[in-house]
Amino acid sequence: IVVLLSTCSAHHPLAKPTIFPRSSSSSNIQFSQKPLILNDNLSFENIHEAAKDFGNIYHFLPSAILYPETVSDISTIIININEMGTTSGLTVAARGNGHSLKGQAQAYHGIVIDMKSLRGPEMQFYTGELPYVDVSGGELWINILNESLKHGLSPKSWTDYLHLTVGGTLSNAGVSGQAFRHGPQINNVYQLEVVTGTGEVVTCSETQNTDLFYGVLGGLGQFGIITRARISLEPAPIMVKWIRVLYSDFSIFTQDQEHLISSQKAFDYIEGFVIINRTDLVNSWRSTFNPKDPVQASQFISDGKTLFCLEMAKYFNPQEIDFMNQKVDGLLSELSYIESTLFLSEVSYVEFLDRVHVSMLKLQEKGLWDLPHPWLNLIIPRSRIHEFAQEVFGNIITDTSNGPILIYPVNKSKWNNRTSMITPEEDVLYLVAFLSSAMPGSTGTDGLEYIFSQNKRILDFCKSANLGMKQYLPHYLTQEEWKIHFGSKWEVFLRRKFTYDPLAILAPGQRIFKKGK
Ligand code: FAD
């Protein structure tokens, strides 16, 4: 087919495609009077799918979706768009699993590349010393886990939810309870293959095309599309001891968390969350966890209280169970939680890592997964976390019924400063995630407007108290705000943009750069 597209508007380059009869076997699309030769993987159907994401707040309709079979499909379309220059305004967004929160994987009137179609070639494992796996940028982490386990191996650093793609999490950071010892996922990658914003296919690593390698890691999709990644692996455990304990005092809670992350040999996973006014939540743990003291635990209520839950996990193999239990008992004896609130569970490694998927299936059943998700993710320096907690958990948030609030520390020394990821400058950083769901149409405390206003109060407080906070999965509407976000790293970010994507074609949904400006 030959598709002639409206030629003049920089903002609506593909707004009104006119389709002409097929003239040759290859598809031929014309933008701004310049022909673009395409393979048959470009589709103008189901484009609404690419205007959705997990956030379910922003919906930017693209003009087409590319389902690439090969890396060359991606590079060809980018080269062609470059050849059109800035007049077409046409942009390209790689879409992993579309679990962004604010339209970051969308491209208004542009082309969305469905990275999951690029799953092949098959994963390649290297099982020698320093094992790794080569995977497609569109691969889901859950698939990597399942394949790695067949070799007795596993990636080291995770996200809480595994149905996200490699390219999607490596464009941000990829953080979970393992990050205190292994750093985020972007620190556990040996090599990448990237299609830059000029369409060049480049292999990069710590020693090869280093600038691009570090630029792309945490680079919000601005410098290239990750088509392949080499992920570092370690021997996989079989089982996990999974533990939750409660605190009513924030200082004691954080003291214990910080004590645990200071040792690389204590637990394998450390997170935490805030519970305000949720007795039902603590009771719901009983389906997975056994309380150490069932009588006391059954009398436990959290109504009217703010509690802090420390969550820990210790990996083990069944033959080491006694040794592991002794070790865990020793570690727990160093902590100062409320004694009657020790909850224990033993699950398989996969069950533990894929735990959020179970909740996701339950929410899906109840029609509660596809709600708007006005999430807010912050990184707070340790020196200011008490001030933050006092205001936010003491004044702003009055209950946690809209969704979980995670809070846990990580060691900054495990994060490579050379990546594009921005964090505050301090040895210990707290990740604080407000994972709210909003009820459509509600004007009450579970409505979008209310949650947005709460998020704004939190952000305003961080700003007015000058906490040195940085957003994770950041979202800003102006370049001025982005400059403040990047701080002293803005110049490097800008230089990399000019070098690798000079026409600002890539990832327009991040709203950092605008094509033609
Ligand atoms: P998408 O949303 O599809 O894309 C995200 C961004 O990356 C877009 O800008 C897109 O253009 C770009 N991109 C996508 N693929 C590529 C590629 N191959 N090359 C270059 N750029 C690309 N994050 C954490 O760190 N820790 C967590 O524990 C965590 N838990 C989560 C749980 C849930 C339920 C959800 C919805 C999100 C969670 N996140 C977490 C956030 C998540 O890591 C990011 O939203 C991530 O971007 C989602 O991956 P995705 O594959 O869906 O990416």
TrEMBL record:
FAD-binding PCMH-type domain: residues covered: 58-236
Enzyme Commission identifier(s): 1.5.99.12
Keywords carried by this UniProt record: FAD, Flavoprotein, Glycoprotein, Oxidoreductase, Signal
Pfam families assigned: Cytokin-bind, FAD_binding_4
Top-rank taxon, per record: Eukaryota
Cofactor(s) in the UniProt record: FAD
UniProt-listed InterPro entries: Cytok_DH_C_sf, Cytokinin_DH_FAD/cytokin-bd, FAD-bd_PCMH, FAD-bd_PCMH-like_sf, FAD-bd_PCMH_sub1, FAD-bd_PCMH_sub2, FAD-linked_Oxase-like_C, FAD-linked_Oxidoreductases_BP
Keyword Glycoprotein: yes
Catalytic activity: N(6)-dimethylallyladenine + A + H2O = 3-methyl-2-butenal + adenine + AH2
Molecular-function annotations in GO: cytokinin dehydrogenase activity
Coiled coil (residue ranges): none
Keyword Oxidoreductase: yes
Family: Belongs to the oxygen-dependent FAD-linked oxidoreductase family.
Protein name according to UniProt: cytokinin dehydrogenase
Record organism: Ilex paraguariensis (yerba mate)
